[in-house]
Amino acid sequence: MPGGSFAPAGVAKDRAGQYQGRLTAYVIVACIVAAVGGSLFGYDIGISGGVTSMDGFLEKFFKTVYKKKKLAHENNYCKYDNQGLSAFTSSLYLAGLVSSLVASPITRNYGRRASIICGGISFIVGATLNAAAENILMLIFGRIMLGVGIGFGNQAIPLYLSEMAPTHLRGGVNMMFQLATTLGIFTANMINYGTSKLEPWGWRLSLGLALGPALVMTVGGILLPETPNSMIERGSKDKGRKLLEKIRGTQDVNAEFQDMVDASEFANSIKNPFRNILERRNRPQLVMAIFMPTFQILTGINSILFYAPVLFQSMGFGGDASLYSSALTGGVLCLSTVVSIATVDRLGRRFLLISGGIVMIICQVIVAIILGVKFGVNQELSKGYSILVVAVVCLFVVAFGWSWGPLGWTVPSEIFPLETRSAGQSITVAVNLFFTFVIAQAFLSMLCAFKFGIFLFFAGWITVMTIFVFVFLPETKGVPIEEMILLWRRHWFWKKIVSEYADEDSSVPNNSTV
Predict the structure, then answer these.
(1) Which residues contact 247 (CB under 8 A, 6 or more apart)?
(2) What pLDDT digit, counting tens, does each position of 159-213 carry?
(3) Which of 148, 203, 238, 499 has a Cα at 20 to 30 A from 378?
(4) Is 235 within 8 Å of 12 (Cβ atoms)?
(5) Taking every pair of C-alpha atoms in the chain, what is the biggest distance, in angstroms?
(6) Strand, coil or helix: what is 91?
(7) Which of 487, 500, 490, 494 is nearest to 472 (CA)?
(8) In angstroms, rounded to a whole number, what is the distance separating the alpha carbons of residues 439 and 433?
């Protein structure tokens, strides 16, 4: 039976101490090009909020919102509450959810590069349609094509980075995806700041400039090498070993190569990865694949980044000031991600997640108190309190940038055995985009209904996720990607679920079939 219960889950031998190699220039260049896909994800997050606050865009596609925006005494929390406007933002993520599941068999059977190329082409089509949009249908269809690009790119790129990186630097290299995402957000905010002055057509330039990184992603995908893990999994062992020697800068790769061969033989015995991933032996990884991206979105960060211009404009900052404030948060996110890259393989994943969670809780509560006490339905914040809100939001973004921002992608991409890795990453991306869709669609209505309570809502979720990490997530720092199964067998809780399969796994020969 495909995906049967006797299939081993990952490599059961601990060869980590025998791994050799270093971070080569070849890996750095390949990973930088691959990570460009993350910049497209970030660019869209950043560009959406700015475009939806531009008068030319609203007047052309969302006249009701435009009229409400011009009313001086409109409810501060509700002036942008419009399901059509929310659909413009969130349709992309629903399309990404579906396409990420389609991307899984392509990534597994044709390689990581194939999905990266598919994602790049979809981005090109979507950006072209959005820049040239003349009606709402054309606009939404362009967003859907961008969503397809995000589904393919986010499914393949984190896997590519994790598999190319040497074990001792995997966290930092993998975070290049998040760094590219934050750079995309920052770039989008700065572009919006400039194009907002080019009424009424500036929004077209904002949406169309996504073509640049889309072309880089597509051409880069064609020129990039495949990962050795994927090459070996698809039967090219000799080519896989030669590439491994090249990217590690040494011929002494026997231990790592053998782990890849063992993992590929296990992987090829699994005909239905999605069925196999549901088995008890894969329960820890499945739980993380669902909860890590869910919690990442429930920090409230996407709401702040999507609607930062709208949020700040609602607080009375004015059009230019709101875009400037959101550009500031984008820049802060970039810098904090760099800090995370520099520290993740020294301080570990757990420390960064827990410390970031504590700071974010404090920030959300402070913003809620300020808005609750000083920001009424038809009032504006004073200049002093407005600056304080922006400062606290920036601190929140800093904490997110060193914790759940990059690690919400890094941890799921590094914990799955090869036989379920592509399926697991698809689940991670699908869950992330599902909750992104829900929050994007609901946030403006929630802001209108909850008012300042929306920040307390997210603070409650951050409390839950911080406790979850403390209790259930083992430290993955320095553990080879093909030996993660050993980590779960040693964890105080997960060993109760997976340890009963340890003897069974080790007794199954490498050429086992199911």
Answers:
(1) 21, 24, 26, 27, 30, 164, 225, 228
(2) 888 888 888 888 888 888 888 888 888 888 788 888 888 878 888 999 999 898 8
(3) 203
(4) no
(5) 73
(6) helix
(7) 494
(8) 10
